């Protein structure tokens, strides 16, 4: 097993894949190797998978960028400038890969998610959190504004709420995160894995084609002016209506029977 693969586990059950960050002693930090492993895992998800759960081991979901790695590169000839730029580019690629992943991605957050770890949660399509989960963008405490986490955070929660998190560095609990829209559901710690799996299974039971098209269209239209958003959505609806699954689903509904999806 390669070093990257040892940093996480990928398990499948039916049409659901679970990717688990597995470096609890390193607080599941997003080192360049961890980001490479996540990108590799996402890229290896097959078309037979219809939903993905992103989970983590230990008390911390993800502590953000690996500060030890960052500090080590200050000794580089360029004082780390090249490494820092490459690491931020890699992180942006990872977050966009989650958004552009054909399958919905659900974050199952068991503990603290800070800085780029909070960014990771905000980048997922859905999030379910344990009551023990906490969320924080604490960069200002170490003289480093969380500028890249702000990109995902500001797209997941209202503007002033994002700015408060970014400027104060104060952690918020799971219920507060739900109130802001950063997470969808809050559950008891002992129910997190089961409830995340149940949510993923319910999504995976739908037409894989419709879900893939819907995720793509949702993300394409969300930042567009209203006329362009409707044009984008209408084109997707037309394409979707011509698909085999739409004919199957509409026929099953009219005949009051369960559909048998072909996922095409």
What is the class of the largest domain in the CATH system?
Alpha Beta
Count of separate structural domains = 2
The helicity comes to 40-55%
Low-confidence stretches: none
CATH architecture designation of the largest domain: Alpha-Beta Complex
Family: Belongs to the enoyl-CoA hydratase/isomerase family.
GO molecular function: hydro-lyase activity
InterPro entries: ClpP/crotonase-like_dom_sf (IPR029045), Enoyl-CoA_hydra/iso (IPR001753), Enoyl-CoA_hydra_C (IPR014748), Mitochondrial_ECH-domain (IPR052377)
Protein name: Enoyl-CoA hydratase domain-containing protein 3, mitochondrial
Describe this protein with a few key phrases.
6-stranded mixed beta sheet; 264 residues; globular; 4-stranded mixed beta sheet; Lyase 2-enoyl-coa Hydratase, Chain  A, domain 2; 2-enoyl-CoA Hydratase, Chain A, domain 1; Enoyl-CoA_hydra/iso; hydro-lyase activity; transit peptide; Mitochondrial_ECH-domain; single chain; alpha/beta; 2 domains
